[in-house]
Design a protein that fits this description.
heterodimer; A: Zincin-like; 2 domains; 9 helices; 4 strands; about 5% strand; elongated; B: mainly alpha; de novo design (two linked rop proteins); 6 helices; rod-shaped
Chain lengths: ~325, ~190
């Protein structure tokens, strides 16, 4: 666990450094192509570099607020949602964390949840309304334990920074690509002799602008997949009840609705991919933010020494007699 | 001259190791104390909630006075045991848990009670408090395990002996206590 915390702290610094460097390079390429010559490149390099540093600092201290605002989450108190609040308190105690995270609700029917913040003292957990209505107490506990593990491991710091910084790279690159498409390139100044060099730089700028978000997204995807498995395992360590989380994930997977408030910059924060694309695959591709959910359920069932029929146990089995097709949880 | 330097270096290194071991022992001990106080907070909260629950249900269940008396008596015993160390306290608190379980089982038989908003919210609070107690106990026991291991294992046991660090008791859970009173009210 301490190893993971150290790794997350280091990764957060590396990410900020990487993004500043990437944006400075992007600034140089764009500047050289648009304004012309190395002087223009250096000028924009400075501007982009400073902006990236400023944005990183802002993301570090207020990234959680931005993410919560983008997700349409509103804060609730104990009186509003006693059960949700109690479950969060229970998991805070189980994890031995110093204070209870702020609790938020997203008024949407699709079941999902995420945690954000920069450390356990400054952390928040957000749950959709649909999640609260769909899950029973044990299942909710499993989900909250998963989020609490992200908080305890400092995953939230790294994941929030990824969302804020990667989102920005995509934004800048997008803007530039669009701008050059709409004839912006025609306004480029420069003499005849500069034309060929300018064209080359223009190409480099476009290539960089395409590659930058791709590289950034791949980092985001590769890293968050491993974290999900780890958070599942730590959640079981907290609740000592693998079936609660397994049943919750099963229900979440069975729900086809995407989350309207989620986007590509925040998707990796959620307990399960909120965009709901290609979610039935057994293997993970380069651009998946989450490991295949059936694989996660299978691992949890294995911890409980239970078969797939355990997913339907509990009070919900009685309430919904026709069970949805049980997924072939391939035992590994 | 070189011999002196070597001796000084060895002494400094030993001193650093010594300080690190001592500090980690103190850190672990503080964690044990802190997690114990967490259990205490939740136990007190349960003690405070029970009179409200008894008051809320007693008008409805005139034939179940014995169950209510049991709960009240178990609560008093648990409060008394508070000063008698983890073992005695755990025992008294377990009695209280059992008596609450039977009370909730009785509540099931009264449709009026099951529909009462006040009883419902008290029940959620008590369920949550039961959970918090068992999670606090889980964390406390994990902390005690790490602390006791440090005290008994080489090399920190040497320092533990010098500074009188003593092992702590676990807060024992009874058989099947992870089964918090399952009250189905949905």
């Amino acid at each position: 666990m301490y190893e993971q915390i150290r790794r997350n702290r280091r990764a957060s610094w590396l990410l900020m450094g990487f993004v500043v460097a990437l944006l400075a390079a992007l600034g140089y390429a764009i500047g050289a192509a648009v304004i012309g010559g190395p002087s223009g490149g250096l000028g924009l390099l400075g501007v982009f570099g400073l902006a990236a540093i400023g944005w990183s600092i802002l993301g570090y201290y207020s990234g959680d607020k931005m993410v919560l605002a983008v997700s349409g989450a509103h804060q609730v108190a104990h009186e509003d949602e006693p059960q949700l609040f109690n479950v969060v308190e229970e998991m805070t105690i189980a994890a031995g964390l110093p204070n209870v995270p702020a609790v938020f609700v997203i008024e949407e029917a699709a079941p999902n949840a995420f945690a954000t913040g920069r450390d356990p003292q400054h952390s928040s957990i957000a749950v959709t309304r649909g999640m609260m209505q769909m899950l029973d107490r044990d299942e909710l506990q499993g989900v909250i334990a998963h989020e609490m593990s992200h908080i305890r491991n400092y995953d939230i710091r790294f994941a929030t920074l990824v969302g804020i910084l990667v989102g920005m790279i995509a934004l800048v690159a997008d803007f530039f690509l669009r701008w050059s498409f709409w004839g912006g390139a025609g306004r480029r100044r420069g003499g005849d002799s500069n034309d060929q060099a300018g064209a080359i730089l223009m190409v480099v700028a476009i290539v960089l602008a395409i590659l930058a978000p791709l590289a950034a997204y791949s980092v985001q995807f590769a890293i968050s997949r491993r974290r999900e498995y780890l958070a599942d395992a730590s959640a079981v360590e907290l609740t000592r009840n693998p079936l609660g989380l397994a049943r919750a994930l099963h229900d979440i997977a069975a729900d086809p609705r995407p989350l309207r408030h989620a986007n590509r910059a925040t998707a990796h924060l959620y307990i399960e991919n909120p965009l709901k694309n290609k979610k039935t695959k057994e293997v993970s591709g380069v651009f998946d933010t989450h490991p295949p959910i059936q694989r996660r359920i299978a691992i949890l069932l294995e911890m409980a020494h239970a078969g797939p029929e355990a997913l339907l146990s509990g009070r919900k089995a009685a309430a919904t007699p026709p069970p949805p097709a049980v997924p072939p949880a391939s035992p590994a | 001259m070189i011999a002196v330097i070597i001796i000084i270096v060895i002494l400094v290194v030993l001193g650093i190791i010594f300080a690190a071991l001592y500090n980690s022992l103190v850190g672990r001990r503080n964690q044990v104390d802190n997690s114990w106080s967490q259990i205490d907070v939740q136990l007190k909260r349960r003690h405070d909630l029970i009179p409200n629950l008894v008051e809320a249900v007693q008008d409805y269940m005139s034939y179940e006075q014995e169950t209510l008396t049991n709960v009240t008596a178990a609560r008093a015993a648990a409060i008394n045991a508070g000063s008698q160390g983890p073992q005695a306290q755990a025992q008294a608190e377990n009695m209280l848990t059992e008596s609450l379980k039977s009370l909730f089982a009785v509540v099931e038989a009264y449709p009026d009670l099951k529909a009462n908003q006040n009883v419902l919210s008290l029940q959620e609070e008590l369920t949550a408090t039961e959970n918090k107690i068992s999670f606090a106990r889980q964390f406390y026991n994990d902390s005690v395990l790490t602390y006791n291991n440090k005290i008994q294992m080489f090399p920190s046991n040497v320092i533990a002996g010098m500074f009188n660090f003593t092992t702590r008791q676990f807060f024992e859970a009874p058989e099947g206590d992870r089964e918090v009173p399952k009250v189905d009210l949905r």
